[in-house]
Amino acid sequence: MADIFGFEKRTLGRAPLSIQDSCDEVAIGSGLEANASVEGDCPLMSASDSLLDSMPESGNDLDGSSHGVIKRIPVEIKPRGKLGILSQGSRKDKKIGGSLRSALSVDLENPEVEKIRKEFEMYRLNKENDITDMKKKETRLQMENKRLRAELLVLQKTCTNLRAERDKAIEAEHQSQARAAAFQSDRDKVQRNFKIFRENMELQLQTMLRDKRNLEGKLHKIAHGYTLEETDISSRPDFDSSLGSPNPGDWWTALESEPSISNVSQVQQSTFRGPELAHSMMEPDGPFNNINREDWSTVLANMTQVLPPVPEHSLSSVLRIYISSPRDTHVEVDILNKEYFPRLSSLCQSAGRTLLLIHLTVDDNTTLTPQVLDRHQLTRRCQINKSAIFLAFLADSTDRFTSLEYKYGYLDNPVSRSSIFCFRETKSGRSSNNEARELKLKVREKGGAKIIDGYTSPNRGVEQVVMEVEKMIKNELGVDHKSDCEEGEEEGGGETDGQEQICGGAVWDPLGDYEQMEAFNYTIKSSCELGFERHYERLNGHVSSAGLLPPLLILGPSGSGKSLLLSKWIQLQQEKMPPTLVLYHFVGQESSISADPIVMIRRLTAQLMQQVNSPPALTADPVRLVEEFPRWLEKVSEKMGGVILVLDAIDNFSQAEVHLKWLLDPLPVDVRMIVSCNDKTCPQAWRSWPTVRVEPLSNKNVKELIHAELATLDADIGSEDGLILTHCRTPATCSPLYVMVLTRHIAGYIRHEGKIGSYLDVLLTCTDCDSLYAKVLDLSRVALETHESRGFLKSILRYIYVSRSGLSELELIDIIPNLTWNFLSIFTEVLSDHMILKYQGGLLMFAHDQVKTAVQDYCFGKDETRLVSQLRQDLIKYFCHSLSPGTVTCRVADELPWLLKQEGDKESLESCIVNLCIFQRLYARGRCAELISYWQFIAADKNSMAQAYFNATRKMEELVGQYNGLITLPRIADMYESLGRFLKDLGLLNQAVPSLQRALEIREISLDPDHPVVARHELAEPLKKRAMSIRKKVKTPRVTSGQIKSVVQRRALQLEELAIGPDSPDLARSLNELGVLHYLQNDFEAAESLFKRALEMRESTLSADHLDVAQSLNNLAALYNDRRQYDKAEPLYDRALQIRVKHHSVNHDSVASVIKHLALLYRKQGKFDKAEPMYKKAIEIREKSFGPEHPSVATALVNLAVLYSQQNKYTEADPLYKRALKIYEDSLGPHHPRVAETLRNLAVMKYEMKDFETAAKFYKRATEIKDSENNYGAKIISRRCSSSDTNSTVKNIMQF
């Protein structure tokens, strides 16, 4: 390595240099070190350069022993004088080289050389140490670099995690803000709803108090002997709901929104009227104005009073009369059955109910065992409890059950039912026995019952009894004591009950509400409530949760107590929160009517519609019902603050996954749905819902349930419960149903036999409910049947098995030969007590699904197919006897078509469903889906069905006057009208018009053509209009001229003028309605004339500031406004506004509507100074009514902003637009169409202000929202697109 002097070191061990060698090296060194620092000029530079050039290039030293390494040592160059160099004058004579070598030989031995060498050696060692240190340092730095890189990676990962946590925190913050905003919105909504509720309740209470004072005044007059004339409150007919208006006088619906007047359409959010608060928020001091404290306290006490439960006999379609009659009064019972029963039965049948006289007789000479005697007593007690009327005949003697019947029928509870006692006196003057005298005395002492005594002739006594029974039946049926049938025929031709009378009476419980109440009451009676507390908490938590939630699924095996859990929870919910709207539906057997999902949806829709003011007519079209049911849920839940819907056993619905698809869609926010399903048959799509599993009972719960049931039945099994607990170890034996059936049967046996013994061992061989039910049936048959009644048990169970919904007691007695009331009553009560049968809807049916399986194995066996077909034929033959007019009941319509379909007899099925009475019975209860399914089964389309029914009605029209005058022309007209409505519900408008036209023709023929009943036939008008539009679309030639659209309405007006008079408020209302229809038909001149005539008539017959006058002023102004006759519309609007402000507060909807349209009118005229205060007033009204953050306020803000924009007042418009945008984004979300529309308005304004960059941003965002809406196919429901002035103002605000 070269040192700092430029020399190379020699290797160690080399021989000392000679002088010659030293000189050579010095020469070389001097050449290499030409730039060294020396004192003075060196004359050897040229010579050393030449020597360097002549040196070999191999790099070896002179002797060749250095192995190719040249070691150079520093040589100090001495001054010229010391080297012995001659002076300049002698250079020519001496050679330079010789003097150099001689000089070096002396200088190389100088001590400085050695010193240099030592210094060089020290320098070399220091450098080597430095290099070693640097290498170590480099290694250490590399390791440190690796460590720092690893730490950097860790820090990067930590940073990534922190960023993720930050994003989650931000998202959680946004969600909490959204929840806070939703809570704020809900709170504002509750405040608004309570305000509306408060105002409505104030009006209702004022009306009630006014009516109360009127009634008190009338009672005061009556008390002082004055006679009050009856006023006709029905002179004004109800508004026709077919015109589409839920409120009389309003053309638009209550859900309709108002338009924005901007150049971009603004959609107004739906607002609901009426009381919207579900929970009670009444203040004890009286929160309503203009009501004194005493009146408020009275009303509050009446409102909070708990109503008594509805008696069971009032829910059943069978009206029972229990007759207590000893042997010596049987003659009265025979007279009643033979002579008067048909008349009483017809009275009940006219109201859709069945009359049943129950008279149980036992020969006193017959010896009864204690077990049989106990069954007779139990049977009489149960039959009396089911009866609505207790009728007792008593002469001189009693039998063994007379005292018991009086005790249960009247003495224990005199007010539980109506009671009639007939005490006959004997002609011989023979005194009554002691028991009879005591019973008569007790009845008279109790008081409250109708007592008929003093008669000696049975006929006379029965005649008086029938008169009282008729009154009681009419009270029970809700029928007026004074029959108006004849007057109704004269006035209206039996309009309300014509087709019902042809078929055999009215329809009882058309929606099935009473049947569901019976199902609920039957389930709630159970004493099993073990382990339900934790499930109650889960159900309560689901109901109280916020946000969108799917249905809560109650899952468990059959017999695990799912129905009981739901019914108990519903009862608790109704007790704790009475105002909460809880809807429920309990599904029966798969073949029953309750298992039809369309029937369920229609029933629940009707209950939802009861929560709104003036609901529309309930359709029977199954497609519309399924489509509209979720909308009704959303509407009512938003109004009431929440709806709870409970569906039990939804897996039993026919085609559940088809008709209940709406369950898979997101439910409305305020709707909570709870459903139950069998674990084995639950569809996979439903298993993703939140689930509550009902598990089998624990051993402890089994023991508690056994003791609870025994305590209820007043029985004790002693130590035998250990055997039962040992047996109940499997899930099947630990189900509540198994334990209850086992316990009840054991208790019944102990009550009669006194001990259980080996009987228990027989029962404990059953391992599930099916086998247990089969064993109980066999043991019951042995205990109940005698030689005379052998085979009755299996016959009864078989007929119930093959029927659709069960059979009534009268039907079983008629079908099964020699079946007596005594056996049937004991049989039904015993099997009901053992949870085998239940009594619901007037029918005997199986209590549980496991019973049907047990009956199938026990009663049919291998011959099931043959026996089932034979038994069905027996039922078909029985029901076919009731197909003539006047005899077709709802039971025939329910069972006969279904039985024929099960048998596959298409020809008989077609003749059955073509029967107009069968059709009317099904249609009256909304069973169109079932009716259509029968026609589909016989491969007939809707057109063929419509033609078949029209032909059948034509044939019935030929039978007028037959069947004892039952078929009349007015009733035929009712049949035609029912057919037309049925076809209209199904969308068959072309087929519906002939039926309705024929109904009108018959009524004009059978009645006076100018009769008001004919005038009320307006149903054909909307159908004709829709039929004409359909013909126009398919380019078919018109049948009549354009005036046919209003022929029926004109005819109705003429008839009303003849029937009511030329000038009356009712006629003015008809003129107003007709004017609207003319306008919709583009007949503006006729509409204007009718509006003016209605206005003049109302001003002459009513006061000048009546609300009806304001309605006519508003309609006429709207017509002028739409025709751009603003100078005529303005004063009319002003006057209408003054009248409505006088009657309503400034926040009322009708006042706000006039203000809105008056502002629009001013804007169109360019009267911005007048329009501005109107728009500001509209904003103020909406802020007071709905709160400052409601979308309706945003729409009013946009309207005012548009007005400012048209005046180039962009500074005032900008904050209004931005506030409206914020309200829309907070309440509706950042991607709602209204947000896009407001952004577009802002973009237009910024463009006019030359702020093109901001305008581009707003327009871009609006376009993105619109594109995303189109891409995802979001179809936002808009009540009205309201941006354009070309939209008809009258169509928006016209009022009936």
UniProtKB/TrEMBL annotation:
Please give the superkingdom of this protein's source. Answer: Eukaryota
Ranges: TPR repeats: 973-1006, 1068-1101, 1110-1143, 1152-1185, 1194-1227, 1236-1269
Q: Which residues form the Nephrocystin-3 TPR-repeats region domain?
A: 872-1016
Q: Where in the cell is it found?
A: Cell projection, Cilium
Q: Where is the Nephrocystin 3 helical domain?
A: 700-856
Q: Where would one find coiled-coil regions in this protein?
A: 131-165
Ordered alphabetically, the record's keywords are: Cell projection, Cilium, Coiled coil, Repeat, TPR repeat, Wnt signaling pathway
Where mainly located? Answer: other
Residue span, Nephrocystin 3-like N-terminal domain: 552-665
Q: Which SMART domains match?
A: TPR (SM00028)
Specify the Nephrocystin-3 alpha-beta domain's residue ranges: 315-478
Q: What is this protein called?
A: Nephrocystin-3
